[in-house]
Specification:
Elements: H1 36-45, E1 47-50, H2 56-69, H3 74-77, H4 81-87, H5 90-100, E2 105-107, E3 112-116, H6 126-133, E4 136-139, H7 142-146, E5 154-159, E6 171-172, H8 177-187, H9 190-193, E7 198-202, E8 231-232, E9 240-244, E10 249-250, E11 260-269, E12 274-276, H10 278-294, E13 310-312
Length: 331
């Protein structure tokens, strides 16, 4: 879904920001955040593509930064001055506050550059690719989603080059987040519901190689998940995917000769506890320490110590109420 609005310069960063940008309109008519229509679409579909206010010069600089970052270790890329400038743009924080219905938000995952490189043929057909890749990355209940502030992780995928359908455009299944979250509300024990939200991948058709196997997502609507046709997330350079990863989505093959380039920013509302696998917790603790040392003092709130707001939730020790029917755990 594309909602066009005037493209204007946003040059402020945390050092000069003195007012809230949530639903604020600047002198050129640009809404610093999302419109009510866009927020309604996010609530209903769980994902949408929106425009951003950045200039060609900014996009050029950030794409060059992206090109440098993929050749560097993470600890170097995240303190690149241009990456720090990107993180401090108030637009991203404003969008996260609106979607999460929160007065304050912070990053909750390693911000960074994500690529989808060209792949040689043969290619899976679209149906086979969807069956192979469809999954969720986050477990949360419908009560978590409907709370204020929302108790989910919000992912912002900012594109620094065009994403046509065949350049590895991610596929999403609009609206799948609600029945899936309602399912978790219904079947999980009270003890396990208390551990949500948590970063935890689950598949409708899990393979043994999947970390959460034999957990699965059953069919919950009239047409089975894997018989539905997902929507390609196509976008122009400078647009952004706003996504609730509780909905079904899948990576996709890049059949063109140019890498798909994204900068991913995961957010959570301040005060919300988020579970994550131990390796992610450890990596994030180190990355956020580097970010706090590199960011201006007034911006360190963007990367608080995970020990203060997160907890570990391992893939091992799977939850029996999520097991596929007939699975013999050997117990």
């Amino acid at each position: 879904m594309f909602l066009m609005r005037p493209r204007v310069t946003v040059g402020w960063n945390c050092n000069t920001r003195t007012r809230s940008f949530v639903q604020e309109v600047n002198r050129d008519g640009w809404i610093m955040g999302m419109t009510e229509a866009e927020l309604s679409t996010f609530d209903k579909d769980g994902a949408l593509v929106i425009d951003s206010p950045f200039t060609t010069d900014q996009l050029d600089r950030w794409e060059k930064m992206w090109d440098r970052s993929v050749e560097q270790p993470t600890e170097v890329g995240i303190v690149d001055p241009d990456f720090l400038d990107f993180l401090q743009q108030p637009y991203f924080e404003a969008v996260a506050k609106q979607c999460l219905r929160a007065d304050a938000v912070h990053l909750c995952g390693g911000p960074g550059c994500q690529n989808r490189d060209p792949e040689p043929p043969p290619y899976r057909d679209d149906q086979a690719q969807w069956v192979w890749g469809a999954h969720v990355d986050l477990q949360a209940t419908l009560e978590n989603f409907d709370a204020t502030p929302r108790q989910i992780r919000l992912d912002l995928w900012f594109w620094v080059n065009d994403v046509p359908e065949n350049r590895g455009a991610m596929r999403v299944l609009p609206g799948s987040h609600r029945p899936i979250m309602e399912h978790w509300s219904r079947i999980l024990t009270a003890e396990h519901r208390a551990e949500l939200p948590r970063i935890h991948g689950v598949w409708p058709a899990p393979r043994e190689a999947c970390g959460s196997y034999p957990e699965y997502i059953p069919d919950l609507v009239a047409t089975p998940w894997l018989e539905q046709e997902p929507v390609p997330v196509v976008a122009r350079r400078g647009q952004m995917l706003v996504a609730n990863q509780c909905g079904l989505h899948s990576a996709w093959q890049n059949r063109l000769d140019t890498t798909r380039k994204a900068i991913v920013l995961p957010w959570v509302a301040k005060g919300v506890r988020l579970g994550m696998p131990p390796n992610q917790f450890d990596d994030l603790t180190g990355e956020f320490s580097l970010l706090r040392a590199a960011l201006p003092a007034e911006c360190t709130r963007l990367a608080p110590d995970p020990k203060a707001w997160s907890f570990t939730s391992a893939y091992v020790g799977n939850w029996p109420e999520l097991f596929m029917p007939g699975f013999d755990s050997g117990a």
